[in-house]
Automatic annotation (TrEMBL):
Name of the protein: CoA transferase
Cross-referenced InterPro entries: CoA-transferase_III_domain, CoA-Trfase_fam_III, CoA-Trfase_III_dom3_sf, CoA-Trfase_III_dom_1_sf
Organism name: Thioclava electrotropha
Record key words, sorted: Transferase
Single Gene Ontology MF annotation: transferase activity
Gene3D superfamilies membership: Crotonobetainyl-coa:carnitine coa-transferase, domain 1, formyl-coa transferase, domain 3
Record field: transmembrane: none
Length: 397
């Protein structure tokens, strides 16, 4: 099922936030035309590599067509405007102000395409006091509250182990684009969308919001346990660690019965979730009195039998080799112009039981330059002149 089939997107993004968003849209059936500079997207040059092909680029640019246009040239800018005039959506993640200098801002592009949905992704938004500053994921993690809330109880702040700022901005960009397209169906008007990485991360801190905005307390680092609920974290086992996440009263009572401490559920210190959190060290001692006598596998199995949410801590390799990953087809292979096949992890949402996925892997640099220009109405002679002038470039054969 390809719900976005027929939608045409001009992708002016590079690295991660924008390409992640447009890859999800490609999975859903959109035609994504990716404009790259002569050197290509920066991610083409970042490892790890397989047979000279960047893994990061392959994972985040599946299903797209690549055209190389030198946007420093006026003819290149005019060509990009011509392509935008034939698209439903434009996505860019330039630093604010760059699109306007290139004549590719929403006001300019809507002169010929008034229904255009234009999505700009940046570090701090289009009109922030910091909008002109460069931003990477680590920068916005540091500024958002995520790093301050992450880490061991007595330790310093830690970054999340993934480029969460880019991924969050990419996801919010997809939400914004799809909502704008629904709005366009109703009104006939396009929209200008402003997605900031920093705003996106701040929006994804509901627990910290509750502590700061409602409880009027500072957000504190608590390691692997939940700051508001107990027992909800990692617990030592005989051979490692297990996750125990008993949120409801029923689950807590079941846990107490399982570990041979039924009276603990009636202990005044543990009668409510709030009291359990206030007395977390005492409750941890009771729970680990049982968990440390058994291996992780047995602890998790017994908790599952008692309907108490639990899990081992798995590596990505272990998860992708699991029955769940195979049953849900989390990793799939796509045909690739150089590698033959490339593994990708597509969007996880299922439509009528199936998860849509792009039909091709990431493109060669300029692999569809000539085809895209022909579809845009340029003659073979015009294309040859643009190639000779260095305004556009084809993939080397």
């Amino acid at each position: 099922m390809k719900p976005l089939e027929g939608l045409r997107i001009l992708d002016l993004t590079r690295v991660l936030s924008g390409p992640f968003a447009t890859a999800l849209l490609a999975d859903l059936g959109a035609q994504v035309i990716k404009i790259e500079p002569p050197r290509g997207d920066d991610y083409r040059h970042i490892g790890p590599f397989r047979d000279g092909e960047s893994a990061l680029f392959a994972l985040t640019n599946r299903g797209k067509s690549s055209i190389v246009i030198d946007l420093r040239a006026e003819a290149g800018q005019e060509l990009a405007r011509q392509l935008a005039g034939q698209c439903d959506v434009v996505v860019e993640n330039f630093r604010p102000g760059v699109a306007a200098r290139l004549g590719l801002d929403p006001a300019e592009l809507r002169k010929d395409n008034p229904g255009l949905v234009y999505c700009a992704i940046s570090g701090f938004g289009q009109d922030s006091p910091a909008s002109r500053l460069p931003a990477y994921d680590l920068v916005v993690q540091a500024m958002s509250g995520w790093m301050d809330a992450t880490g061991e109880e007595a330790g310093g702040p830690l970054k999340v182990g993934e480029a969460l700022g880019d991924i969050a901005a990419g996801l919010y960009a997809v939400i914004a684009i799809l909502a704008a397209l629904v709005g366009k169906e109703k009104t006939g008007r396009g929209a200008s969308l402003d997605v900031a990485m920093l705003d996106s991360l701040v929006a994804m801190l509901p627990t910290s919001h509750a502590v700061h905005l409602y409880a009027n307390r500072p957000v504190e680092r608590v390691g692997n346990r939940h700051p508001l609920s107990t027992p909800f974290g990692t617990y030592r086992t005989r051979d490692g660690l297990a996750i125990i996440a008993a949120l409801s009263g029923r689950q807590f009572t079941a846990l107490c019965q399982l570990i041979g401490a039924p009276d603990t559920a009636e202990d005044p210190r543990f009668l409510t979730d709030e009291k359990r959190t206030q007395n977390e060290p005492a409750l941890r001692a009771v729970i680990e009195g049982w968990t440390t006598r058994h291996p992780t596998e047995k602890v998790v199995a017994a908790l599952a039998e008692a309907q108490v949410p639990s899990a081992p801590i798995m590596t990505l390799a272990q998860q992708l080799a699991s029955h769940h990953a195979h049953a849900r087809a989390l990793v799939r292979q796509l045909p690739h112009h150089s590698l033959g096949e490339s593994p990708v992890v597509g969007q996880p949402i299922r439509f009528e039981g199936a998860a849509p996925l792009a039909e091709t892997g990431a493109p060669a640099l300029g692999g569809e330059t000539r085809k895209i220009l022909q579809e845009a109405g340029l003659s073979a002679a015009q294309i040859s002149r643009l190639i000779a002038a260095g305004v556009v470039k084809e993939a080397s054969r």
